[in-house]
Write a structure and sequence with these properties.
Layout: H1 10-16, E1 25-27, E2 41-43, E3 56-61, H2 68-77, E4 82-83, E5 91-96, H3 101-110, E6 115-119, H4 122-134, H5 149-162, E7 167-174, E8 180-186, E9 198-203, H6 210-223, H7 232-241, E10 243-247, H8 252-260, E11 271-274, E12 289-291, H9 326-337, E13 342-350, E14 354-357, H10 369-387, E15 392-395, H11 396-399, H12 406-412, E16 418-423, H13 438-454
Parallel strand pairs: 9-10, 9-13, 13-16, 14-15
Antiparallel strand pairs: 1-2, 3-5, 3-6, 4-5, 7-8, 8-10, 11-12, 14-16
């Protein structure tokens, strides 16, 4: 659904200053297939500003109904609902539109699958968040708001200017839409730190998970003493030992689209095919043109087997093959080149408050399971000790089986400490975590990060 937004300058333009995106559809009668035109439309574009009026989010308990999980998977494949939390395990958080509400809830009741409403008014949540974004001062970066990629990158450059002996930025490469994948390297005597063991941290691989990049930026600022002055003695010792290579925004194209078009966008932005693979003989899409690949299903480990969809329009479409996306190509190329130096790979996501350990595609525990358990315990205890938030320490596969994740690919490359942290919250706000929670989320996770480093 297209909606009109008002253009303006600064942050306003970054979020809502796009012109009205109008989508034209042309009916296509396929008389050789059907006796009428019902259901057949020639779609050249199905991509624009999404209006979430009437949408709600619900949490479905799948543990007490044998058929509920299968039905939810069918709905997801048909794009009848969107799954918001990571996969379909014992419960699933669903985004349900007004046209589907009665049929979805009615079917759940028939299946005796209980559910609770997480948000009655998604469009209200989106508008509240938009108002917060528009309150920001253009060109200023802080932890009181969520910012466009260009402001994150400008802040990284500003940090290098303020800490020239401890930080330098570099680019891993360019995205499909030509955005820079800017990383920052932090260490004492950074120019001569190339032989030190590497601690890698990334965020923002899924576009809608805004707090992940904000948290990684908080860690960057903590390392350089811009925040968390009480932790500086610990960080100074670690910066003598390690070089920290940090990529705050690993899917900038998708992130920017989640700010300007579809708040719940997850994937990259490269055109990925036609919905369900249906196209005309001259290559035009019958049911709709699809965009993007799930960049955390696009890595070359157990590729395309579990937790994915063959529909290019699906949120968990892994691509036709591994590393089809420029951002995963750039990341994997750098990581593979330096794998022997990497002591820790840590990827921040949201939401659900979890410390996830390898691997996601095999229920048999890996040989390093005991080490992983100890690391996870240290992290979740440190997080709990900060603001009392409970993060669960589990293996990825215990949540849901998945193939093609960055964490598991790194583990396969010999990086024994390869983890994912799912940040706040547990579902009420989900991806739309209020900006007021950026700082406390950063505070608890920088302490979890320190506790993790102490286990290495």
């Amino acid at each position: 659904v297209s909606t009109q937004s008002t253009g303006s300058s600064g942050i306003n333009a970054e979020y809502g200053g796009q012109p009205l995106v109008t989508m034209f559809t042309v009916a296509l009668c396929v008389l050789s297939l059907v006796a009428s035109c019902h259901g057949y439309r020639l779609m050249e574009e199905e991509d624009g500003v999404v209006d979430y009026t009437g949408y709600k989010t619900i949490r479905v308990d799948l543990s007490g109904s044998a058929g509920a999980a299968a039905v939810v998977r069918e709905w997801v494949e048909e794009e009848k609902v969107d799954v918001l939390n990571e996969g379909i395990g014992d419960e699933a958080d669903l985004l349900v539109g007004p046209n589907e509400w009665e049929s979805v809830t009615g079917e759940l009741e028939n299946l005796a699958a209980s559910y609770e409403i997480l948000s009655e008014d998604i469009v209200g949540d989106v508008e509240t968040e938009r108002a917060q974004l528009l309150s920001a001062v253009p060109g200023v970066f802080d932890f009181n708001n969520y910012y466009a990629v260009k402001y994150m990158h400008s802040h990284l450059d500003a940090l290098v200017s303020r800490h020239p002996g401890k930080a330098e930025t570099f680019s891993l490469g360019q995205t499909y839409q030509g955005r820079d994948m800017k990383a920052i390297r932090i260490s004492n005597n950074v120019a001569s730190s190339g032989s030190k063991p590497i601690i890698w941290v990334d965020g923002g691989i899924h576009a809608r998970e805004w707090v992940s990049s904000a948290t990684v930026m908080y860690i960057v600022n903590s390392l350089l003493g811009e925040v968390e002055p009480s932790l500086q003695s610990k960080f100074q010792g670690l910066m003598n030992k390690y070089q920290f290579v940090i990529l705050p925004m690993s899917n900038p194209d998708g992130y920017e689209f989640s700010r300007t078009g579809n708040r719940f966008w997850r994937k990259t932005r490269r055109p990925s095919g036609c919905k369900y693979g249906y196209e005309t003989s001259d290559g035009r899409c019958i049911y709709g043109k699809c965009y993007g690949v799930d960049p955390n299903r696009n890595w070359d480990i157990d590729f395309g087997r579990q937790g994915v969809s063959k529909n290019p329009c699906s949120d968990v479409y892994p691509g036709k093959s591994a590393f089809t996306e420029k951002n995963t190509q750039a990341m994997s190329s750098w990581l593979a080149k330096h794998a022997s130096q990497i002591d820790l790979y840590l990827s921040f996501h949201s939401y659900s408050q979890l410390f996830l350990k390898p691997v996601g595609y095999d229920r048999n525990p890996p040989v390093d399971a005991a080490m992983h358990n100890a690391a996870g315990s240290a992290v979740v205890n440190a997080i709990y000790g900060t603001h009392g938030k409970v993060y669960k320490n589990i293996r990825s596969v215990e949540l849901y089986p998945t193939s093609g994740s960055s964490q598991d690919w790194m583990y396969s490359k010999g990086v024994k400490n390869a983890y994912t942290i799912e940040l706040r919250d547990t579902g009420r706000h989900g991806f739309q975590l209020p900006a007021s929670q950026i700082i406390p989320t950063g505070e608890e996770n920088v302490r979890g990060f320190l506790a993790l480093l102490e286990t290495l």
